[in-house]
Amino acid sequence: MRIAGAAKLVVVIAIFLLTFYVISQVFEIKMDANLGHIFARSALDAAARSTKPPRYKCGISKSCPEKHFAFKMSSGAANVVGPKICVEDNVLMSGVKNNVGRGINIALVNGKTGELLDTKFFDMWGGDVAPLIEFLKTIQDGTIVLMATYDDGATKLNEEARKLIAELGSTSITNLGFRDNWVFCGGKGIKTKSPFEQHIKNNKDTNKYEGWPEVVEMEGCIPQKQD
């Protein structure tokens, strides 16, 4: 009887040890699998972060060199969506900011610091050109001037207004017409014509919208004014 009892005890112990071994092996495999999954996911996340394209100021396609201001701007879309002007990652004018309107939209920026000085819009369809002319005459040397049309920016323009804008570096202002889309970045005191200008004529055969051409967009790096 004692031998039989001892044998049963050995069997119980053996079963317990075998069960413990199997459980420990399964648990270790699961732990290894979970850790492997965690490490693999971390590696994938890191790879995704490393391949994500960088974001530059104002969402432009490349970074600007030192002593340059990043900018991006767009004209209005027909008479529905207003223009947008961004400098150094700061949206200066947009429909969301509720500071744009029909006609020519203008943002003035300090050429040394990149800080916003003023924003205005002038209705060139139902308004008067005189306030625009007076505003243009007050712009100080060294000021960056950004302009974008919305709906119609040309009907009330006269020769004096066009000349003042041309002196800021614009080339297209001389033939800007009814409902043309136009964006421009120049400066007071500029010695040459600005390279930052886009213009699309209003043409019923090519217009994207009924009565209006497609939106024009432009981005770039404005040289900082040096003393």
Q: What does this protein structure show overall?
A:
The protein has helices spanning 2-51, 130-138, 159-166; strands at residues 68-74, 84-87, 90-93, 103-110, 116-122, 143-150, 181-187, 196-200, 217-223. It is an alpha+beta fold. It starts with a helix and ends with a strand. The strands form two sheets. A five-stranded antiparallel sheet has the order 5-4-6-7-8, with no helix packed on it. Strand 4 (103-110) and strand 5 form a beta hairpin. Helix 2 (130-138) packs parallel to helix 3 (159-166). It has three helices and nine strands. The protein has two domains: 1-48; 57-223, no CATH class.
Helix content: 25-40%
Cα-to-Cα separation, first versus last residue: 109 Å
Q: Main sheet?
A: 5 strands, antiparallel
Mean pLDDT: 86
Q: Cα-atom Rg, whole angstroms?
A: 33 Å
The beta-strand count equals: 9
**Uncertain ranges:** 26-33
Which descriptor suits the 3D outline? globular
What topology, given as strand order, has the largest sheet?
5-4-6-7-8
Query: What is the N-to-C succession of helices and strands?
Result: HEEEEEHEHEEE
Q: Work out the oligomeric state of the chains in this entry.
A: single chain
Class based on secondary structure composition and strand pairing: alpha+beta
Report the sheet-strand fraction. Answer: 25-35%
Summed up, the domain count is: 2
Number of helices: 3
